[in-house]
Amino acid sequence: MTVCFVLAAVLPALCVAWFASCGVRRIASTVGFLDQPSSRKDHRSPVPLGGGLALWAGVVAPLALLQFVAQQFPDSLRNYLPPALAPHVDGLRASWMPLTRLLGLATLALLLGLADDRWRLPWPWRLAIQFLLAILGVTWGGWQLTLYVLPPWLSIGLSVLWIVALVNAFNMMDNMDGLSSGCAAIASGVLMVILLWGPNPESHDPQWFLAGLSGILLGSNLGFLLHNAVPARLYMGDAGSYFLGYCLAVVTMQGTYAGYRPGTWHATWAPVLIMAVPLYDLLSVVWIRIREGRSPFHADRRHFSHRLAARGVSRAHAVTTIHLLSMACGLSAVLLHRVDVIGAWLMVGLVGCVLGVIAMLEHGGGPVS
């Protein structure tokens, strides 16, 4: 049944995102909504922008259809679903308001990115609106990181920073063909595995709703990736990266990671391990720019992928390397709720070693062959 559930979540989103990407490519080329080549970009000819709209459609359309069926035909849906899922139809119907809040705020983030793609908004404006949307998500949406040892006010502050950080992390990673969408797909897939494998502590069932939402994000990214992989024929732009970052931030905060058995509080580290590579890229780029006396939001070619390319790694291999590193960190997160505290520290140490490998690849002596 789990395999059918995964396919039912992933495939519709994949098909919608792929089809929507075809339409966005044609429209963007017609209206001149193109990413032009420049000295800090790798492409040599204009590439259509607006792929974020395709990602948005890949997520919103399947969820809207599912909610419509659940609200209008709940009994028919129960009869269609497997016995293990049928009792959750009422929960699905009750989720329409939280889901509307999430998609509404994520859509506002997408519109902010779309405006930035079109008019290049000043970075203080962008950052201020990102913080506003994050604050609305934490206060109005009620989404917070699960941190047992911290006072509530600090948990709220870290939750706001978490959303803003992931929005900007996936935005900064969108600098090579297939890089940001591939990392988002890996993060979504890892989250889906964790949420299916780690049951809800109250019902002891898999976390079906959040797992399905992660699967939809995975499918949407895969459908878009068919247009965004090397050589990219469509870019997600800031619209897509803002939308993905916001959605993934909320899903990671809503998941229950420490409910498998008593004494697994360390499983709450899972989101940090899943996002270790995007966060490393964000923090390292910001540090480099500040150290050089420049604005941390001044676009350049100092990203992790660019630093690998400067060591002699081809662009395609740089993207694959980062995807594999993201997968290694994500697989460590999958095991957190299955091990004790010592095992958890070993998983954290493994991720630390991965980040150490990244640092060696970037700064080791001699060209990378």
Description:
This protein has helices spanning 2-31, 51-72, 74-80, 89-94, 96-119, 123-139, 152-173, 179-197, 208-228, 237-254, 270-274, 276-291, 304-310, 315-334, 341-363; strands at residues 34-35, 47-48. It is globular and about 60 Å long. The chain is mainly alpha-helical. It has one domain (2-363).
Helix content: 55-70%
Largest sheet: 2 strands, antiparallel
Q: Mean pLDDT, as a whole number?
A: 89
SS field, number of helical segments: 15
Q: Poorly predicted ranges (pLDDT <50, ≥5 residues)? A: 365-369
Shape designation: globular
- Element pattern in H and E: HEEHHHHHHHHHHHHHH
- Range of strand content: under 5%
Domain count: the total is 1
- CA-based gyration radius: 20 Å
Q: Order of strands side by side in the largest beta sheet?
A: 1-2
> In oligomeric terms, what are we looking at?
single chain
Estimated structural class: mainly alpha
Number of strands: 2
Compute the separation of the termini in Å: 45 Å
Any descriptors?
mainly alpha, 369 residues, single chain, disordered C terminus, 15 helices, 2 strands, two-stranded antiparallel ribbon, 1% strand
Write the layout of secondary structure elements.
Blueprint: H1 2-31, E1 34-35, E2 47-48, H2 51-72, H3 74-80, H4 89-94, H5 96-119, H6 123-139, H7 152-173, H8 179-197, H9 208-228, H10 237-254, H11 270-274, H12 276-291, H13 304-310, H14 315-334, H15 341-363
Antiparallel strand pairs: 1-2
